[in-house]
Structure formats: C-alpha cells, structure tokens
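Sample entry (173 residues):
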Amino acid sequence: MGQAIMSRYPLINRGSLAFEDTPNNAIYADVLVGKDTLRVYNVHLQSIGINPTENIANQGGAERIKTRISTSFIKQQEQLEKLLGHMSTTANPKMIAGDFNNTAFSYVYRSISANYQDAFQLEGHGLGATYHFNRLPLRIDFIFVDPKLEVLDFETFGGSQSDHLPIIADIKL
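Predicted structure, serialized as tokens:
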C-alpha cells in the first residue's frame, strides 16, 4: 500500500499488522529518541470504494453504495479494534498516523480520539482537507498522539502526486 515510517532517530523494533480479507494494514516501529522510546503506527483502513468521478448509477445505484459504505464501516471498526489491541501491548507513548478513510464524525475517529489527541485539532488551521470527493473537501488522514506528547505544529501540504494531501506534525516527547 506504499506505507513507510521514516525517522532521523534509530528504529529499534518494527513490524506490521495484517487486516483480514483486505490489502489494508498497519505498520509500526519503535523510535529511540535519546533515552525515550516512541511507538509510531502508520495505518491504512478499509476504503469505502466509491469512485467520486463515476456516476452513482454506474456504481450499482444507491442501494449498492449504501451496502458498500456499511460493509466498509464494519471493516474499519474491526481493523481499528485490532490496532487498538496491538497498541495496548506497549506502555510507550504512541503516535498513530495514516489514511483512516473516514471523517472526524465517524465511529473510528471517536474511538481513537477518546484516548489520543488529534494533532490537527491542536495545531492545524482551516479545514485541513486531505482528500477531495467531487470537490468536497474531506479530512480523512489523521495524526493522533498520546496525551503525554506535545504537538508543536501541524501542516497540510497542497499539491501532491497522490489523491491525498500530505500532512505533518511536529511533536515533542
């Protein structure tokens, strides 16, 4: 899926979490910063699978789209539960970033933001849109941080080679 975790600090442990029946997954690495260790996750949750440039009628109609959305939301919830279970295996502070394929109004967002801070909410500006669905600006890519961490800055960059815009946060341990 093209995910990576890059750091100027040493990575002392790394791995991946496969999600059932999908190419989506999560990767993680423990980053050694001085004497502290930060667990970093990069996630890509299930896509809703609706093509914004194609007519709804060509995608099976409204009923088929409703089923697709419902199925995707259930898969996202299962994927998040697996991620949260894995996150509970370390006491180190955590940062979770990636393509959640859902908005800040979703169950997935509410579940993770119950215990982790949304870096955009703390230091972002404007809409923070990372994806455009038929010119509708959506924020579906997030960086969440452990409450023990301090978010110093957040930025969404324009102009991307992807259908998503890149985001970055400066975080202090």
